[in-house]
C-alpha cells in the first residue's frame, strides 16, 4: 500500500536487523564490483598515460579534499536529524529538514566554487614539478567542476537512507559508476586524452545525481511538494551545534586523509605520489567495501537509538565489533601478503614500495577498522559534540609527526606519523567516550575483549606471514597460493579461537535467521502464485 503523501509500506514490516543485513550485503557486493571496475580502470590509466598524470590525479584529489572541509559534516548532522521523523513517518518534519539541507548544500557548492577558483593563481606553486603539464589549469577546473556538482541534488538521497533503504542508493550509484568507468577506459584506449577522460567523470556525476534524486522523489512524493514547513528554533540550534562539532571532525579528517600526497610530493618527490596512488586505490577500495557494511547498519542503529532503550545497544555493539575485528584484520593480513606481487603484476615493478612501507599501510587499515564500530554507533546516535576536539588533536599530531619523521625517514616517516597519531588519540579515546556517555557501562570488558582479539590477530598475522614466506615460483602462482593461505589460515585460527564466544554465536544466529526468513518469504510467494 502507498500512502497519499508518504513512503511505500511493506505488507510485512522488515526488522532493523533485516534492513541492516540487506543494506550491508548489497553495499558490500556493489562496492566489491566497484573495486574490480576501478582496478581495471586504473590499469588502463597507468598503461595509457604517464606517471605525471597519476601524480596530478592524486594531488588535485587531495587539494579538493581539503576544499571539501567546507561541507563541515553537514551530511552527518542532517542524516541524524532525519532518523526520528523517518521512524515516526513525520512528513512535515522531514520536509523542513530537507529544506534546510538544500540551503546548506547550495551554500557549500558556491563556497567550493569560489575558493577553488581563487586558488588558480597559486596552482603552479602547489603542483611543484608537475607545473609543466599541458593544460594544467583546465585540468584543475574540471576537477573543481566535478567537486561542485557532487553537492547538487545528492541531499535527497538521505531520505532513502533514513528509511533504512540504503541498498537502493548503493545499487544505482554503482550502476552509474560501472558505466562511467567503462566509458573512461574506452576514451583512454582510443584517444589517450586526459581532458576527455575528466569530462566523462563530470557527465557521469551529473547523470547519477539526477537519476537517484528522481528515484527519491518517486518513492517519497512529498519531496516534490512546495511547503512552508520550518524547523523549530531549538531544533535548528541543535543542528547548528552538531555542525559546529562536526566541522572540527571534518577538519581533522581532511588533515589526516588529504595531506599524504602533499607531503609525499614535497618531501620525497612526485614519483612516490604516483606509486602511493596505486596502493591507495587498492587499500581504500578494500576499506570502502568493508566500511559499507557498517554504513549499511548506521540507519538501523540510529533508528534503534531513537525508539528503544539504549541498553539494547550493548549486545548489538559487541556483535558488530566482533564482526568488524574479524573482517578488517583478515583484510589487513591478506593485503600485506598480496599487495606487492599484485601491484608488480598489474602495474610493473617500478610501482613498488618496500615491505616496511606496505606493513605501515596495512597496520593503518587495521587500526581504522578496529575503530569503525565505535565511530559508526557514535555518529548514528548523534554524539558529535563530546569529542569535537579529538579529531583536531589527532590532525595536529599527525601533521607535526609526519613532517618531522618524513624529513628523517622519507615515505615511511610520513605513514609512521599517521599510525602514531592514531594510537595517541582516537584508538583509546573513542571507546572511552562511547562507553561513558552512550552505553553508560564500564570500559573494562571491552578492553579485555580488545586485548584477546589483538593477541589472536598478532599470532595469526605472524603465522600467515611465515607460511607465505615459504611460497616461491612465478608471480601469478605466488599470488594465488598466498591468497589461499591467507584466507584459510586466518579464518581457521579465528574460528578455533572464537567459536565459543557469544558474539560469534550471535553473528551465526542472525545470519541463519535471515536465511530462514528469506526461504519462508519465497515459499509464501510460491504458495500465493499457486
Structure notes:
The structure is a single chain. By secondary structure, the chain is mostly helical. It has a domain at 12-261. The protein contains 20 helices and no strands. It has helices at 16-48, 51-67, 74-88, 91-118, 123-127, 136-149, 157-162, 166-191, 194-219, 233-257, 260-267, 270-307, 313-347, 355-380, 390-409, 411-424, 426-439, 444-468, 475-498, 502-529. The longest helix is centred in the middle third of the chain and has 38 residues, at 270-307. The chain is globular and about 65 Å long. The chain starts with 15 loop residues before the first helix and ends with a helix.
Name the descriptors:
530 residues, 81% helix, 20 helices, mainly alpha
